[in-house]
Write a structure and sequence with these properties.
96 residues; 4-stranded antiparallel beta sheet; alpha+beta; Alpha-Beta Plaits; 2 helices
Length: 96
């Protein structure tokens, strides 16, 4: 079952997003393995990212193997604090 993640970064900027995404996503502009959707943009109090993975397991693999280690090591110009996170099992998807 697909698995959704919403990350809210209070006070964050587009520049921090761009630095962070460059550090954790493939350099060819594709999505990490198992991620099937990614959207991001400014929100009322910072920056919001929505990602859909093909399973909870693929999210956990990306989170534990790539995202957390790189964020904990520090990303020059990237997000300064961890996000507020909401996760959910995807009940319904409408293809584009």
């Amino acid at each position: 079952m697909a698995y959704g993640i919403v990350h809210q970064f209070p006070g964050a900027t587009k520049e921090q997003y761009e630095a962070s995404i460059a550090a954790v996503h493939p350099s060819d502009g594709s999505l990490p393995e198992g991620q099937v959707f990614h959207a991001a943009g400014p929100s009322a109090d910072g920056w919001t990212i929505v990602a859909i993975h093909d399973s909870k397991e693929s999210w956990e693999q990306f989170r534990d193997g790539t995202l957390l280690p790189r964020m904990q090591a520090g990303i020059d110009g990237g997000f300064a604090t961890p996000p507020q996170e909401t996760a959910f099992e995807v009940y319904s998807e409408v293809p584009v």
